[in-house]
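Appendix B. Raw example, untouched.
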Amino acid sequence: MYISQINIQNFRSFNGIDNIIEFSEGVNVIIGHNNSGKSNLLKALDLVLNCGSPKKLAIDDFNKSISIKDLKAKSPKVSITVTFSESVNETEYSEDLITVSTWLTELKSPYKAQLTYEFYLPEKEEAEYQEMLADIVSDDIEEYWLSIKHNFLRKYKSNIYGGNPNYKQVADVEALKKIDFQFLDAIRDVERDLFTGKNTLLREVIDFFIDYEIKIDKTKNKSQQQTEIKQLKKEFSTNASQLINTLKRRMERGKREMLSYASNTGASFGNAEPDFDGHILDTELYSALRLIVKYQSGITVPATHNGLGYNNLIFMSLLLAKMQRDASGDYLGSNAKVFPILAIEEPEAHLHPAMQYKFLKFLRENAKEKVRQIFITTHSPNITSAVSLDEIICLHKKDDNTLNIGYLGKAFGKDLKSKTYVQRFLDSTKSDMLFARGVILVEGITEQLNMSIFAQYEEFDLESNHISVINIGGRYFEHFLKLFNSNNNYTLHKKVACITDLDPTRKEIAGDDGYKKCYPYELELDVGKYIYKSCSNDLVDKFTMGTDGKSQHNNIACFSQRKSQGKTFEYALAYTNLDCKLILTESISNCEELTDLFDYYRDGKPLGEMIELLGKKGKENKRIIESILSYKGADNREHLLASRYLNSIQKGENAYELAKALDENLLKKNAANFKVPDYIKDAIRWVCS
């Protein structure tokens, strides 16, 4: 069996409506931005499944989004339901089915079973509750919660019910103990929990694995194994007796002197006097052991001297060893656990990226036979990029504070091509889009490096708004938008702004070469020879912004240059900043010529003089001049300069230089009058709003 879902109501960040989160067998990686509910999800599992966890809640464990009206009408209640489902290869009379037999809600295969934790005010207290809260006349909801805390919280009860919670059938404690729920929270002290044999974890693990070569020897039956281990214990006791006798001999003279005081104090009477004796069992010597780290050089150091990350890994490995011990029927008999579960909060704590990958590999290779299901919460893009999309669950709080749950593997439906593409694309940097509150998708490195600076020019802060800028390296938006399209099931409902180029094209009517890029001023110049497209990107029309400034889609909007004016980002940058030489970076070719062209434009020189400065060398320059001269628009000089700028850019190097220049200019309080292109302004404003 496996835990197939949890339904959390009124617990911490989860409100009173059904908050159903589905799980898969094996590994479940839960991600999301801060305060999206990841830690509270693991705590909810712990409340239901961990027999040893406190079941009494504090007043702040209630979700406080309830209205005063509802709070007066009925006392608040926390409810958490965990559903178990039958595994694919489970046998009909498995221990799993026996364990949950009294919790079943569906008897036919595949069966389902439920455990429900409730923290509630007993019915007999309800009348007094409503009467007392009715006497409070205030608009401050905290007054009502304080009244509940001081007058009623001590009367609250907790129960765990098996099966349909409406029947109020309390789950059998012995059956609950068959579940081994191990929860490692983010604030863990592994040095306290780990390093000496006096510690319960280490002692229990040592006791299970001592004489392990005998215990796992399949050539011997159980009786033979027990006989050999008994003989080893006897040998140990004999050797230990020799040590005790040696110690007693060394103490003989000192003992007489030390115990001579017994006569003076009256402790010796009736021909009896104190003496020393003793024996040692192997189990009693566990406390003498300490965990060390031994290097190949032969040097040994105490484990307490390791880094926190290394010790975290050691602790987790020992915990898995303990879970193996607790599931051993040979060792614990009928007290053995049936269903081991491991929940880890932020395993990346103190681990550098390579160790995070190694940790995940370790879990996959070593935990599958010792742990039936694993739940991991993380903020680490490194961990996210190392697991499959099918293993990732994303929690996202929407603007109205409702919870959106995305299942990345299911979001693509039957589109395996897009799913495969995104899976390969999500490295440790691009996985950041899954944690952000909003996303800006761009085509290239220049937009990626400069978007945060553009936002600052417009007095927005992408980092403070938790907006992630992702360079998808081309026009592959559609693959990624399948993750975010709120019209479909299992997707992430966060705002996504796509910044893309128009890239107008044309093709010869009589030719077979297909569409080729053209300049915006070439559109419709020769309709007898060419067929034109003012935009070669279908995304622009599909997710365009309306005239009212609102997107045609709930959470996705596309931003691009104005049709018949725009071409690429570099083209728009020059067209918008013809009086700002800041964009003329060192790596740009024809820099001297472009500087003169900028001066000509600033000085109002006519188009003819600018064309003469441009010159007719090169095929592309001849094409630009010929088309510009046929163009009837009033902005011919602007297009001429933007075309020359575009054809002079070496994108990679220029991206870094432009970012540096714009950043330095910003520190000078915008000394150069740089303008962010309108469509980028609109994208930043929309995604941050």
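End of appendix B.
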